[in-house]
Amino acid sequence: MNRNLILGAALSSLVLLAALVSFVWTPFNHAALDIPAKLQPPNAQHWFGTDHFGRDMFSMIMVGARTSIAVALVAVGIGMVLGIPMGLTAAARKGSWLDEFIMRGNDVVFAFPSLVIAILITAVFGAGAINAIIAIGIFNIPVFARITRGAALSLWEREFILAARVSGKGIARISAEHILPNVANLLIVQGTIQFSLGILAEAGLSYVGLGAQPPTPSWGRMLADAQTMVSFAPHLALIPGVAIIVTVLGLNLLGDGLRDWLDPRIRVARA
Amino acid sequence: MLRYALKRLLSLTLSLAVASVVIFAVIEVAPGDPASFMLGVNAQADTLAALRAELGLDVSKVERYFNWVGGMLVGDFGTSYTYRTPVSQMIADRLWVSLPLALYALTLSTLIAFPAGIYAAARRGKPGDVAVMGATQLGIAVPNFWFAMMLVLVFAINLRWFNAGGFAGWEDGVWTGLHSLTLPAIALALPQAAILARVMRSALLDILAEDFMRTARAKGLSRRQALWRHGVRNALIPVLTIIGLQFSFLLAGSIIIEQVFYLPGLGRLVFQAISARDLIVVESVVMLLVFAVIMVNFLVDLAYAAVDPRLRSRT
Amino acid sequence: MNLLQIKNLSLAIHDTPILKRINLSVAAGQIVAVTGESGSGKSMIALAVMQLLPNGAEVDGELRLDGQNLLNRPEAEMCALRGAAIGMVFQEPMTALNPVKTIGDQVMETILIHKAMPPAKARVRAEEVLARVGLPTDRYPMTRYPHELSGGQRQRVVIAMAIALRPRLLIADEPTTALDVTTQAQILDLLKGLVSEYGMGLLMITHDLAVVADMADEIVVMRHGEVVETGVTDHLLRHMQHAYTRMLFEASGHQVNLPVPPEPRPLLEVDNVVRDYRLPRKRLFDAPGHHRAVNQVSFTLNRGERLGLVGESGCGKSTLTRAILGLEEVQNGRISLDGQPVFTGHKPNLAVRRKMQVVFQDPYGSFNPRHRVARLITEPFHLLDTSPTGSERQDRVAEMLTAVGLSPDDASRFIHEFSGGQRQRIAIARALIIRPELILFDEAVSALDVSVRAQILDLLAELCSIYDLTYLFISHDLSVVRTITDRVLVMQDGQIVEQGETEQVFSRPQHPYTRTLIDAAPSLPEIGQGAA
Counting Cβ atoms within 10 Å, is residue C87 exposed (0-12), middle (13-18) or buried (19+)? Predict the structure, then answer.
């Protein structure tokens, strides 16, 4: 156990807990307007204050955590489900046309930052949280494909893989039985990192209006709403920002902690 | 070396070709006809046909694709559906904001990250290292547009050192232009610098464990001399990869940051185009962004070869 | 006064004792060899003299160079001594050089960092030393990068860097362990020549007793951080005092008795085999080049025979091994086992595969770290149509573990709980479990300490008499091949240049290359007669 792991797990579970609890309880209805109580700074009744419509910020932050986590989690899932098999296949068939095809394809996808994908999708289909998921998810595919391939390639050189081949095992079986379990730690750590990047990306997309649409609360849009009021109601901008920082920081610490705990030797691409 | 460059160039061209097909195909599936969207529901059939011909929409999809790509190769990005002006002109105007902003931010982040990363690596485990690593851990977690809002709050609204938004233009001199890009550039650069500093540190620490560093010390180099003469250049190889990747993040980030500072860059252009359903503009800006990312990665590949002699001779 | 005098040197890293009260000395012009098995702490002595110890190291005692104590010297003074008064040569020439700097720059750096002479003169000196170590600049320009040189050539560059300023003391830590025998002989000659020419003291760290006996004026034998015996080479070899020293020398030249092979009946037939690798094009429009790794190789391995395959790195023996195992297809020729081809069409032939198994070199990389021993050694069951289950499976595992000298209880343990030697036993158990007709040993004892190696060789000899093994033993180590095989193939540049009865080939080599190999290998002196 190490300090990063504990602190990271604590912060991440705090956010996760807030998101889960929001399904059954929030201090106020997050969507309820209360114009007379608008723009209150944090106080005993509204712990995080109220926004320009008098909505309770604390409740909105709790519900917003749901959006952030859901989008980032599904996006990591898309990246893993599609990227890992690609990486395993490419490594198993190293140097073949299939490897070349998969990796060049991933290079092309990698040239599309998730914001650009989101712009394209929104231009064609209109805005929504699903766009954000797809955009971030697509961007995650080459990340996982590359890291899986890289780690798998060095394993294929190892003698225990040769021993498995001498025992007549095929590529698919070796990948599932020997390669995947030995790259799993690395993928878990990378998954945590991509999760935190997903939270940031979702916030950015919502901020520019390419993510979750009203009435779905999201931290990024809360910040967009706050922008014109930052001079007289700074808490509107401060609080969602801190929520994002706490979540991302927690996940990053968790990732670092997991890496040290699972295996001090593995290296993770941080990009 | 030449062979290596040509090979990379081939792969660059291929990537661009595939990317252009993807972008074109995605835009093609957009429902509705731009011409009728522009003229409204009550448009006359012949006016519609004339507009379609003017916009080049009256030919087959394959032909349209090649017209689009062929046009771009000679700098003709078509005509905006909304403004009826050449897209190339619109993009060129905005590029004078976005590109300097991205480069400014890249320079800042490199200038901050290199010393910070080298400093931390040289003092591994000591208080200086712990402080830098703590700061970078925080820096990674900060969303750049939120950081931008905080910078506005402090330096524009409270201290009044900078304008809260807008771009002064380059007409009054480079300095005025840079001044109005400074807050946006800082907002973009700091979170990226945090990542880069961490990569620099860990790359250096990896290098420090290499056998040739011990050889260098056995020759009589001090720890610091070995770090500078043998460590930094080898550590540049992974760091360059990240700088290449960062450029695409900076481009994407600048699109968002432009919203915070009301900068008339590509970002604003593309968002206006989305709300006006000006798809040709979206298509061209996206292609341009993708082109920039692929181009930068090509340059990074060439830079590898400059740093690493093994790549040069392996062809 | 001695050049280097070490007195009561103790060293601990994070409170784990590594060296215990070491005493040794090196005089000018003298070669002192420190030897011992892994974990003896011998390399730490080299690092202690250089004062390049890992973090957390605590040192105690005396370490004098020319009478001046080196311990607790200010770092700046140590920097001035390193490279100038003490030079060092490392084990791994492939990684000891900075890949992004030219060899000339790296040799000149030694001179320039000490401001010993102006750059122009430093260049001349660098050319001189490179020429002295056998890399004359007309054939090996100083603008070459390390990756453009072979391992032996890189080691010469490392030596040039170490001797550029004519240090009084040279430290060489396993300088030839990573090199082929012929290269090793050249590098050892070079070091010897430098010592006598410059009157340097040489402190050499090596595990190879044959090298020690060949090179050293004085021998220091270490075990578990302690010096067990020191003496002038000739005397020590004749009058070994310590049981450990005797054991080491006995194990290094360990001989086993193999049962007599049966009447020759062909099992493995390799006929005119060719394996080409495609090389990257040199220029854009050139046809891609080819490297012929295995060139028209033919031989027969008889049932019950133990065949050796020797050759230096890059000679094609690994490629040939992979081809026999059916891991790679050959371009030409035919490999068949019991009359059946290893490859049918472009697919490896399963019926043949189940008759072959392999034991690899690396005891650490040969096993999936996530599986237990029982699962690891039953992996070849995958080749059988019906693999044993339940108690039959357990019995087979227990039988195999017992056969290789382990306990049936070990089946439920993970691989990281075993030492290198035990892991090689497990690898042998895995290879034996389906009773293959042929086993390939690919450098199977090369990574082991001599005492462990001797035990594994004994185990092999024992298994030969129990299971009538047929094997192909691939190794670069001539002394091992000499004792563990009946017949031997000598391979050079992809071709078999000589084959014959092992004893015959070793005592009367016909091919010049075989002669070179045998002459280059340092040999252990006859020992033990006068032991007290």
Answer: buried
Question: Can you say how many angstroms the Cα of residue C306 is from the centroid of all Cα atoms in its chain?
Answer: 22
Encode C249-271: b = buried (16+ Cβ within 10 Å), e = exposed.
bbbbbbeeebeebeeeeebbbbe
ipTM of the complex, rounded to two decimals:
0.88
What total of structural domains would you count in chain A?
A: 1
Classify burial at A141, counting beta carbons within 10 Å of its beta carbon; exposed 0-12, middle 13-18, buried 19 or more. Answer: buried
- Alpha-carbon gap, residue A233 to A41, rounded angstroms: 7
Query: What structural domains does chain B harbor?
Result: 2-68 (no CATH), 95-313 (1.10.3720.10)
The CATH architecture to which C4-252 belongs is 3-Layer(aba) Sandwich (3.40)
Element (H, E) at C296: strand C290-302
- Rounded CA-CA distance B54/B58 in Å is 9
At C18, list the tokens.
């590594």
Q: Given CB atoms, is B297 within the 8 Å cutoff of chain A?
A: yes
Of C365, C380, C427, the CB nearest to A167: C380
CA atoms within 13 A on the CB side of C350: 9
B11 touches chain A (CB under 8 A): yes
Q: What are phi and psi of B69, to 5 degrees?
A: -65, -45
Residue A196 domain boundaries = 3-17+49-270
- Measure C308 CA to nearest chain A CA, in Å: 20
pLDDT tens per residue across all 532 residues of chain C: 689 999 999 999 988 999 999 999 999 999 999 999 988 999 999 999 999 998 888 999 999 999 899 988 899 999 999 999 999 999 888 899 999 999 999 999 999 999 889 999 999 999 999 999 999 999 999 999 999 999 999 999 999 999 999 999 999 999 998 889 999 999 999 999 999 999 999 999 999 999 999 899 999 999 999 999 999 999 998 888 899 999 999 898 899 989 988 888 999 999 999 998 877 665 556 666 788 889 999 999 999 999 999 999 888 998 999 999 988 888 899 999 998 999 887 888 888 888 999 999 888 889 998 899 999 999 999 998 888 888 999 999 999 999 999 999 999 999 988 999 999 999 999 999 999 999 999 999 988 999 999 999 999 999 998 988 999 999 999 999 999 999 999 999 999 999 999 999 999 999 999 999 999 988 887 665 443 3
Which three-class secondary structure state does DSSP give residue C89?
A: strand
Give the closest-approach CA distance of B284 to chain C in angstroms. 34
Measured distance CA(A186)–CA(B230) in Å, rounded: 29
Which DSSP helix (H) or strand (E) runs through C475? strand C471-475
CATH code of residue A174: 1.10.3720.10
The dihedral over CA atoms of C273, C278, C279, C280, expressed in degrees to the nearest 10, equals 180
Terminal CA-CA length for chain C: 31
Phi, psi of C215 (to 5 degrees): -100, -40
Closest alpha carbon to C269 in C295, C300, C304, C308: C300
Q: Which amino acid is it at C500?
A: G
Of B198, B252, B267, the CB nearest to A113: B252
Q: At what angle do helices B61-73 and B279-307 cross, to 10 degrees?
A: 50
Phi, psi angle pair for C515, to nearest 5° = -65, -45
Residue A25 lies inside a defined structural domain of this protein: no
pTM surpassing 0.80?
yes
Q: Which helix (H) or strand (E) element contains residue C64?
A: strand C57-65
Nearest to C365 among A158, A165, A169 (CB): A158
Chain region(s) in chain C for CATH 3.40.50.300: 4-252, 265-355+437-449+463-521
Tokens matching residue A260: 């040290």
Architecture of domain C265-355+437-449+463-521: 3-Layer(aba) Sandwich (3.40)
